[in-house]
């Protein structure tokens, strides 16, 4: 089996499956490695998007993160590009507030509870996100409840879009991967970032390749499971 990371990111973990089920391994690898072999996206972009999927706070897969840090660096990614992917993976956690704050406001109204009456402080980071067209109305509820905290958080968001490290198109492709990943599957964000990617010039083929990358993560079931099965069979003398 070819262990070139550009062809088979999972390396020798698929060797035993290829021995036991060569046809099955061939089909899985053909589907799973399509983003690397199709040529729709440059390899560096494929590796950085894969890195986003594995390092995301909804996944935190250390082995996959290391594999795709290595792959991204081998493909020419810079330290700053890899760091920015990590920041996007961390920022994904804001969806806890996107989910919870509207529910909190509804339940406050039902219970007759009012928020503390305080003046809204200056929120320059949130203003910057609005000015560059990246404010999401789904963030209004937690901005209403915690404007200072929200501004602190979006100092990170504004920096991602204003850094110039990635093009707007590529930021949107990374964001699609984070939201559509099988460990998150956040439909509102997926739709918003697909819309943003098309607006920024991404093609449908590029967006589908991002979704194919999300699907390729499914091969981890075999990459992780088959070696364990082989070990347990060996322990029982049934290898």
TrEMBL record:
Highest taxon of the lineage: Bacteria
Entry-linked InterPro entries: AhpD-like, CMD-like
Stretches assigned to the Carboxymuconolactone decarboxylase-like domain: 31-91, 149-227
Pfam (any one): CMD
Keywords, alphabetical: Oxidoreductase, Peroxidase
GO MF entry, a single one: peroxiredoxin activity
Protein name, UniProt field: Alkylhydroperoxidase/carboxymuconolactone decarboxylase family protein YurZ
Organism: Brevundimonas lenta
